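Why do we care about 3D structure at all? Because function follows from shape, and shape follows, mostly, from sequence. That is the central idea of this module. The next example makes it concrete: a single protein chain, its amino acid sequence, and then its structure expressed as tokens.
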Amino acid sequence: FESYMTALIRAGAIQSIREVWWDVRPHPDFGTVELRMCDGMTNLDEIAAVAALAQSLVADLVERFEVGEPLPGARDWVLRENKWLAARHGLDAELLVDEAGTRASVRDLVERMVDRLLPTAERLGCADELGAVREVVERGPSAERQRRWVAEGATLADVVDRMVEEMDVSLAPRGAPRG
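And the structure:
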């Protein structure tokens, strides 16, 4: 990674790491990993759910790597196809799970991932947030909900009002009545 960045900067192709946009990008200035799949969430509950999923997944993979367990992987063409399917169909996508063309629904894959990561999330203190991933899968992401509201007759102003209401509800303190 570092030699790649150094070569791009030396070649004048980029000025800094901030010009490279990947799906997952280490950020050397902050010691963090940026995930570029989460740009469209409209309330804090969903943000916390996806953050817990990412945190738990990374911790799980680190733990598995440190004990020498082989990590899951897929060929580049499978990854590219799944990325396109996920971008096109969202939670309704049927992803490739092997090179033979076997498919599984994103919803089922996410459910299994949440089940597998729950012990890790419990150790990290984010089990409730990880569990909320199931709610997101069940009710659909914001874009899906917005399209559904419009199909049911909502105006643009109605959609904005509902999104504001979702954000307000997600800002309520834990234990307070929510929505």
